[in-house]
């Protein structure tokens, strides 16, 4: 059986079947009882938010 990549992904990935939940942005920061839309197994997830900043000279 192949290993499912479900760490540091752009969307929530089911650790059981590998289904990519494309509506992950609707799910909030974390959940202890998330049910896969594909295989219906329950798993937990957490999200990590990164903020970056850019600055520019005024008048250039």
Care to describe what's here?
There is one protein chain. The chain is mainly β and 60 residues long. The chain has one domain (1-60). The chain is 0% helix and 25% strand. The chain is built from no helices and four strands. The strands form two sheets. Strands 1-2 form a two-stranded antiparallel ribbon. The protein has a two-stranded antiparallel ribbon with strand order 3-4. It is elongated, with a radius of gyration of 16 Å. The mean pLDDT is 91.
Question: What characteristics describe this protein?
Answer:
60 residues, mainly beta, two-stranded antiparallel sheet, two-stranded antiparallel ribbon, 4 strands, 0% helix
Number of strands: 4
The topology string of helices and strands comes to EEEE
Structural class: mainly beta
User: Helix fraction?
Assistant: under 10%
Spatial extent as radius of gyration: 16 Å
How far apart are the termini?
A: 57 Å
Largest sheet: 2 strands, antiparallel
**How much strand content do the residues show?**
25-35%
- Put simply, the count of helices is 0
Domain module count: 1
What is this entry, summarized?
With 60 residues, this protein is mostly beta strands.
List the helices and strands and how they pair.
Elements: E1 12-13, E2 20-21, E3 30-35, E4 42-46
Antiparallel strand pairs: 1-2, 3-4
């Amino acid at each position: 059986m192949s290993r499912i990549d479900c760490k540091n992904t752009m969307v929530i990935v089911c650790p059981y079947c590998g289904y990519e939940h494309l509506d992950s942005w609707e799910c909030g920061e974390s959940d202890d009882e998330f049910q896969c839309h594909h295989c219906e197994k329950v798993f937990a997830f957490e999200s990590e938010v990164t903020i970056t900043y850019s600055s520019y000279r005024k008048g250039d």
